[in-house]
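Letters spell out the chain; backbone shape is given numerically. Both lines appear below:
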Amino acid sequence: MDTTNTVTKQRNAFRNAKLESVLHLAAKGFRAFPVAINEKKPPFIDGWQTHATRDPEQLSAIWELEPRLNIGCVIDGGFSIDFDPKNGGLESRRRMKEAGLLTRTYTQRSPSGGFHETYRCSPAVAKVLKNAVGTIPGYPGTDIRADRKGYILGAGSMTAAGAYVVEDDAPIADASPELLAILPKDDPSKALQLEPPVEGQDSESEKARAIDYLVRQAPEAVEGHGGDNTTIKVINRVRDFNLSAETTLELVDEFWNRTKAIPPWDYDDLAKKVRSASKSRKNSVGIKAPEHELGPVESNDLRKDPSKPLPGTWDEPADLWKQEKPPADMLNGIVPPFLVAFGRDRARSLGVNSDAVTAAAVAVAGSLIPASNRLQMFQNRSSWSVLCVLWTALVGDPGSAKSAAVKAALAFANPVNKAWSAAFASEMANYDRAELAYSARTSKKKRTEEPAEPDGHPADVMVKPTPPRSRSKISNDSTTEAIVTRLAETPEVAPLIQYSDELSGWLGGMDAYRAKGSKDRALWLEAKEGASYRVDRQGRGSVEAPNLAVSIIGGIQDDLIARLAPDLETDGLLQRFALIAIRQLGLGEDNAEDPAIEAAIPRVALALAGLKEATYRFAPAAAEELWAIKAFKMREMARPDIPSGLKTWLAKTDAEFGRYALAFHLIEWAAIADALDMPPDELISAATARRARRYVEEFLYAHALFIHSTVLDNAGHDQESRLVAGYILTRDLERITAREVGTTRPRSLGRDRKQLLAVMGRLEAEGWVRMTSSDPARWQVNPAVHDGRFEAIRRAEKERREAVRGEIAAAAASRRAGKGSPA
């Protein structure tokens, strides 16, 4: 009997059962979170309410990693009654049923023989319910687990006493008024009274708009960095969608507070913020709702020139100096856990966001998978397959540790190169011996003209030994001929990793030695597909690589990629990259190495590099994720506000999903390959495919949106716009002309009308100016820019300009003194 296979099957069955349990609870309406193995007490007492979620991807990632964890459950807008048999709870349950207080609802049985019954109620009632033991008057043994205050263990959990199971899988019912009336409540005077909704508020379409804003656009609130003000702004923005205070509180808490407030607000404190914002807001609720934006306009304008804008209709001027924040770290639970641990460890040392290091590690580790390993994307057709060729660029300011982060990730390639170097040294020694023997035998034949072999075979039939080829996974030479020659001579290194400390140099070096054409670009555009590729070498014949597969990893400054972007987008070269924003968070630490991580790096790397040829497929359930990513692609490409360059990136997301699904599957196998002692499964699981889809949809897309919106779109005019805005502030200008714009730096704005209009158009879009005449060009300045909100910028800009003038005056004086001095 194969005991290893039996244990594996048992382990998989246990994991699948636990996953089925937690996902079933989430579908019922419970938010779940992990509780310590065989315990009722959660591993993180503080903040378990924040960790609770209904997201199936997050829940799957947690319980696939450790299926023995118990399941904590909480119901939003509801409560659970725990009927404890030790204290008379079963008799109380019988009497409450007879009295008509209980209705059929979702019910669990505990290992002790008790019952958990869960009911829904209004959010207002749920907030004031007590969370206590034995608290229903007249009914002993009845414990209340109230909304956000207490939790129950969900079915599928186990303790030393036994398992929690489903007694009645009915829908969660609404609590009867009679039951709610006898439940113990907190002092009602302590409850936060939010204004009730009015007619027309809280429509489903407005809720959807608000959720989209909270998830995609709302800024983070970081304690100590204007967190209070940011929270108030987010609340007011949600109320702009014509939502009541109660609904605003629920949506802000669920879709923003738990993910973007650092640390999250306590629910009661957040409710106070909502109440405070409602009292202090200046605009009416629903100002951004369609009925306000598209409502009828009464025509009572009796001015001489009605075409001019009405007074006071300026948009709020944007803070041009405000730096948008890149996406927060989010890869825990998405990327294989070992790489998350590696990214965090190296990021602590470098003082950067850990997701940037983790993403670079994903690219390098995935690129160790030989090109002979492919993923067939469709279930029934073999016409479309992908391999692990991953292009990743870390984008950031100078000094943001881009190079250090990339070099940290290259640690996965080093063990492979070291093993290949050792093998080459051994092969070279064998070659030297064979070459020496061959030379000796051929020399003997020449002297004797007789067979040198005792068995009578002539010496000249000996085959001249062939020198071995040196192999390396990393390339720093980006010429097409060098790349193809290496992949032709040592095809086992594919995909090659093209490492560029600064990708702008790699891009600028293309076709450097060619007078015509753009053959380098053509090669790189093919290098992600892994097909055969032939190069004709002048005077030396042709060479063909069986797999033109080259991964690319490097960093690039944000201003340089903005300058190169227009040319790179013409043929989609830029859109083949995963662009990751890297940010400096501190000076870094001299943290001690983690022995487990350091030992695992060569083990994982060599396991990946040693994989034999194989074709992988999605498991039937995993195949649904491909269609999910296709639906995401179509949905996002249809949005009118998506830049054209980003649409090209979106068009490639289904293939990218396949590459990362294959990478995650094999990296997860490599992390435990020693313990398994078996090759990887040829079917990629639904959970792994789901995490790969989330990596593309949630992580890569978030960074692509950020970089396109803050770096690439209008990037060429950011600095010029700030210079003109600074000029307006320091001169207290109410109007500005094209001539005055030309006096600012750079002076090219005064000579290039197209560039001038682009810069001023950016200022107009940001609410700073409004054109009043096109010939000659002049603009009116928004009076709000002088109301003191930009006073710090005005002072700093004034000091800077005065310092520059002082330097110019000093230089002029020095030149005059030089001319007047004796020879």
Remarks:
- Residues 431 and 467 are 6 Å apart (CA to CA).
